[in-house]
Specification:
- This protein is mostly helical.
- It has a domain of 49 residues.
- The protein is built from two helices and no strands.
Length: 86
C-alpha cells in the first residue's frame, strides 16, 4: 500500500463517517500513481458535495437566527407568539 492509498483510505473513511471536524492532511511527497487518479477525483467530488451540504446547513441556520432575532423581548408573564409562516 502506498502513502497515497493510505491517504485516500483516510479521506474516504472521514467522508463515510460525515465527520464535521477532521485532522489536517498533507499530500505525500511522492507523485500520485496514475492508477489512483479516478479514485482521487471521486474523493474530490464527494468532498465538494459535502462542502455544498455544509454551506446549505449554514444558510439555514443563519435564516433561523435572523428569525429568532425578530422575536421581541417580553415580560415573563406576557404570552409571546412567533409567526413562523410569514
Amino acid at each position: 500500500m502506498t502513502a497515497w492509498d493510505a491517504l485516500l483510505d483516510r479521506l474516504e473513511r472521514e467522508l463515510d463517517a460525515q465527520l464535521d471536524a477532521v485532522a489536517p492532511w498533507h499530500p505525500p511527497a511522492e507523485p500520485m500513481p496514475e492508477e489512483l487518479a479516478d479514485r482521487a477525483r471521486a474523493v474530490l467530488l464527494r468532498q465538494q458535495d459535502r462542502i455544498a451540504a455544509i454551506r446549505e446547513q449554514q444558510d439555514a441556520i443563519a435564516h433561523q437566527l435572523i428569525a429568532l432575532r425578530r422575536v421581541p423581548d417580553a415580560a415573563q408573564d406576557a404570552p409571546a407568539f412567533l409567526d413562523v409562516a410569514g
